[in-house]
UniProtKB/TrEMBL annotation:
The protein's name: 3-isopropylmalate dehydrogenase
Subunit description: Homodimer.
Composition bias type Basic and acidic residues, residue spans: 665-680, 734-750
Organism: Perilla frutescens var. hirtella (Perilla citriodora)
UniProt-listed NCBIfam families: leuB
Length: 914
């Protein structure tokens, strides 16, 4: 027997899905073993399909087991034997000798369910249920672990309110071979009055209580460290002994916080506030009932697996549900509880943890992809039967969860209505050309996980400044997914509202069980690349130096990756599928505008899953013929100004009343002291809602630098005609923005009243307020928009800033006098109205140097969230990276140190020719 369970030496390392300590494990696989390899191990599994839906769900689980075994390099020998009603019909007894001996002789036992109407009136010893009890007793599996975890994907399937159910992760440790199910005397008889009676005995020995209590303490120790013992010690002697023994054992587990609760209260507390529970230990009957109750918190009894373990011998693994005769034979059963029981079999029964994780990951992925059986189905999900669900799980096991594909789409287009906005292609980040920092799309790749690294460019208007020479361009071949460490990449991971922008040289991305590790070493000519400021403590890249990222940065990347996958997996799958197609079309259009060859575009991936977009603009050419027509059209569209709406009502300030309003309008997953807060779900290896990501992001922002800024130089840009006053078509110089003498320079004032905030506008998934006057043709100079307010943000559709990282960024102006002025949208409007010729220096800005010969187009500012994880809390802070986009690779970086901005030009670059 290969896998007898030694409770002492292998005390229930919790599974990914059932573990409070699962945060350290990501759903990632560092290796994919070749399925063709000769299996190194072989396990014998007894399959007991049983009755009702049992055979249906067992068939699905068996296929999953077979597939993961082939992927992990071992094999199963399955022995299928009857139990319950099926055995009664075949052999006349519910647990034939042969069934028990086969089970005992195997490495693990997987059971479907037993029971059905047909045998309901059988005598006790001829009931299917008796067969199951005999099996449990025969295998001596006294410890039944029943995890109940509310998966983020199924939070809406719970019958409890979302805020009650979300994050529930508890484990019921049920005593399985004692108590009233087995106690004697039991039976029927007559009492002194001659009245018929039925009686049972709830009986527990010290030894029985102690061994289950130890398992429970060990389990709690590996989870959240809290154990609640549930009994009825106010009434029942067996419970009084139970409580006494559990209390006595607590001294051996000082790290576990023990509490006691009467079962009636526990039943109530489970639906009142299930999150108060971590591990519950209880007797056979209470455990049976409470775990069924807990199952509904998670959405369905069809989701909950269980593992029954003894001191030695094979474990018994079964879903907690019964044979569901009401849906049997109709292909309606949810097989996931059994599939997850198979994962528990792999983990607890065989020690095949990787294989177990494959199954768990596949279940999550299947749910992510929207497949639901009837019991967990809700509108907009794909309703499938048992068999189809099984097929989808197999597909997910096989697919290795190609995260990168999804990443690509969400990175490139976090918006919902691209199709309607093809005239705004300028703001889609799809690459660009090398000299202006755009053409290379590089992908890191490892087994099962990839992500894209984009050289980005901001808008197609900049393409005009791109050099014609293509000698130094990356060819499409070079953009194939690879771990090419020789390439310089700018890594931009976007997840929800969290952005990470860093410029790394010779980056190495290592995917491990724990997440993404990033290291970088210096490469070749540093001056080729824009860099993060050397002053920036987060950016230890110094020319000529070989560096590795610190832990912080590793986590940083990990955090963003988590946020990203969270965003992708759970919030936007549907949207992304749609977006993928739209994006592909868009890419084509853009490609036809700017490239000669279509080779530069690759759209990959099964459409139903996702679309991988690789667009590399090879060269700036004037397209011919039909393409030229499209190009002209596209250019016109790209230049067409987006007219601001009448009113800017989505400004947002971190400390404003509006923020409070925003906070009031949203459920906060993380209020109060960080130690008391439930940790962000991603920390548990789970995903979180986009709202939660955003709220966490906002909450984590340093209020002093919470204002996202865009820097623009006005020295070479003419003002556009005002869209609010189209008649004023004469361009005016805006090179000197000044405040009136009696007014100090406007800067971000947290106490200043903010214009009406629309919190929902911060959520990328929310429908955007329509632009009130879209796409009106206005004659404008052939230049980028002159005023920040003439730029429409893709994210919130507001004006005065652009780009998806919004939310409602503020603006900083860089004047030709090397001064910065910070102002909100309204403040700018007002300042403009009050403009005089007075200069007002801004005192907290240092070392601003701008090359007057370089026609600066704009300084793009990206805000990113950083995170440092400690045991107790996440420390988050915000980074602001600024990159000057001038079409000539002149790059400046700005370090935002509290409220001080330091503009610092980097070493001069080789200036590419327009
Ligand atoms: N471990 C076992 O084999 C168990 C067997 N049973 C036996 O099962 C038979 C039916 O018992 P019930 O009390 O009705 O409990 P049950 O768990 O079989 O069904 C309860 C309800 O949940 C639904 N349900 C259960 N599993 C489902 C799944 N995988 N997918 C979708 N819906 C599911 C059923 O359709 C039914 O509406 C009885 O003969 C009982 O003794 C009951 C509990 C455990
Ligand atoms: C069917 C019974 C033997 C027991 C039961 O309901 C269970 O353990 O889940």
């Amino acid at each position: 027997m290969a896998a007898s369970l030694q409770l002492n030496c292998k005390p229930f390392t919790p599974l990914l899905l059932h573990s409070k300590s699962a945060s350290k494990r990501a759903l990632k696989f560092s290796t994919v073993r070749c399925s063709a390899a000769a299996p190194s191990k072989s396990y014998t599994i007894t399959l007991l399909p049983g009755d009702g839906i049992g055979p249906e769900v067992i068939s699905v689980a068996k296929n999953a087991l077979k597939l993961v075994a082939s992927l992990e390099g071992f094999e199963f020998k399955f022995k299928e034997v009857p139990v319950g009603g099926a055995a009664l019909d075949l052999t006349g007894v519910p647990l034939p000798e042969e069934t028990l001996s086969t089970a005992k002789g195997s490495d693990a036992v997987l059971l479907g369910a037993i029971g059905g109407y047909k045998w309901d009136n059988n005598e006790k010893h001829l009931k299917p249920e008796t067969g199951l009890l005999q099996l449990r007793a025969g295998l001596k599996v006294f410890a039944n672990l029943r995890p109940a975890t509310v998966l983020p994907q199924l939070v809406d399937a719970s019958t409890l309110k979302k805020d009650v159910a979300e994050g529930v992760d508890l484990m019921v440790v049920r005593e399985l071979t004692g108590g009233i199910y087995f106690g004697k005397p039991r039976g029927f008889g007559t009492n002194g009055n001659g009245e018929e009676i039925g009686f049972n005995t709830e009986v527990y020995t010290t030894h029985e209580i102690d061994r289950i209590a130890r398992v429970a303490f060990e389990t709690a120790r590996k989870r959240g460290g809290k154990l609640c013992s549930v009994d009825k010690a106010n009434v029942l002697e067996a419970s009084m002994l139970w409580r006494k023994r559990v209390t006595a054992l607590a001294s051996e587990y000082p790290d576990v916080e023990l509490s006691h609760m009467y079962v009636d209260n526990a039943a109530m507390q489970l639906v009142r506030n299930p999150k108060q529970f971590d591990t519950i230990v209880t007797n056979n009957i209470f455990g049976d009932i409470l775990s069924d109750e807990a199952s509904m918190i998670t959405g369905s009894i069809g989701m909950l697996p269980s593992a029954s373990l003894g001191e030695s011998g094979p474990g018994l693994f079964e879903p907690i549900h019964g044979s569901a005769p009401d849906i049997a034979g109709q292909d309606k059963a949810n097989p996931l509880a059994t599939v997850l029981s198979a994962a528990m079999l792999l983990k607890y029964g065989l020690g095949e943890e990787m294989a177990a994780r494959r199954i768990e990951a596949a279940v999550l992925d299947t749910l992510d992809r929207g497949y639901r059986t009837g019991d967990i189905h809700s509108a907009s999900q794909k309703l499938v039967g048992c068999k189809e669900m099984g097929e989808q799980v197999l597909k997910s096991i096989d697919s290795k969860v190609a995260a990168a594909v999804k990443v690509g789409v969400s990175m490139a287009a976090p918006e919902t209505d691209l199709a309607a906005r093809t005239d705004r292609v300028r703001s889609v980040w799809i690459g660009g050309d090398k000299a202006s920092g755009g053409d290379r799309l590089q992908q890191g790749q490892t087994d099962g996980l990839r992500f894209g690294c984009w050289w980005h460019r901001r808008d197609s208007a900049d393409c005009k400044a791109a050099p014609q020479d293509s000698a130094d361009r990356t060819t499409p071949d070079e953009t194939e997914p690879s771990n090419n460490e020789e390439e310089d990449v700018e890594l931009q991971l976007r997840g929800g509202s969290a952005i990470q922008l860093g410029v790394f040289e010779k980056s190495r991305f290592v995917f491990t069980q724990d997440g993404v590790r990033v290291s970088t070493t210096k490469k070749g000519n540093n001056n080729e690349l824009p860099k993060i400021s050397e002053d920036d403590p987060k950016s230890p890249i110094t020319p000529g130096e070989e560096v590795s990222f610190s832990n912080t940065q590793v986590w940083d990347a990990k955090y963003h990756f988590d946020a990203l996958t969270s965003y992708v997996n759970h919030q936007n799958r549907e949207m992304e599928n749609r977006l993928g197609e739209q994006l592909a079309q868009l890419a084509e259009q853009i490609g036809s505008l700017k490239t000669q060859s279509t080779e530069a575009q690759t759209v990959q991936g099964p459409p139903e899953r996702s679309v991988e977009l690789q667009v590399a603009v090879e060269r700036q050419v004037e397209p011919q013929g039909a393409v030229a027509g499209a190009a002209a059209q596209g250019r016109a569209a790209a230049r067409r100004p987006q007219l601001p709406p009448e009113r800017q009502d989505n400004d947002f300030g971190p400390e404003s009343d509006d923020r409070e309003e925003f906070e009031d309008n949203f459920e906060h997953p993380r209020r109060g002291d960080c130690r008391d807060r439930p940790r962000a779900p991603y920390r548990l290896g789970k995903e979180e809602t986009l709202d939660a990501t955003i709220i966490r992001y906002i909450e984590g922002m340093n209020p002093d630098i919470a204002c996202e800024v865009e820097l623009r130089d006005f020295s070479s840009i003419k003002e556009m005609p005002s869209s609010r006053n189209p008649s004023s078509s004469t361009p005016t110089e805006a090179t000197r923005r000044r405040s009136p003498p009696d007014q100090p320079a406007r800067r971000f004032d947290r106490n200043a009243p903010q214009t009406g905030c629309r919190p929902e506008s911060m959520l990328p998934n929310q429908p955007r307020p329509p632009t009130t006057r879209p796409n009106q043709a206005v004659t404008m100079p052939n230049a980028a928009p002159a005023r920040a307010r003439d730029i429409q943000c893709q994210e919130c559709q507001g004006w005065g800033h652009f780009q998806a990282q919004c939310p409602n960024r503020r603006v900083l102006f860089l004047s030709d006098q090397n001064e910065l002025e910070s102002a909100s949208e309204d403040e700018l409007e007002q300042a403009k109205g009050n403009a005089t010729n007075e200069e007002v220096p801004i005192d907290d800005v240092e070392s601003v140097e701008v090359n007057p010969d370089a026609p600066i187009v704009s300084l793009v500012t990206i805000r990113s969230l950083s995170i440092n994880r400690t045991k107790e809390h996440d420390h988050q802070w915000e980074n602001i990276f600024y990159t000057l986009h001038d079409g000539r690779l002149n790059t400046y970086t700005v370090k935002n140190n509290g409220r001080t901005c330091i503009l610092k030009p980097l070493a001069p670059k080789a200036v590419a020719e327009d």
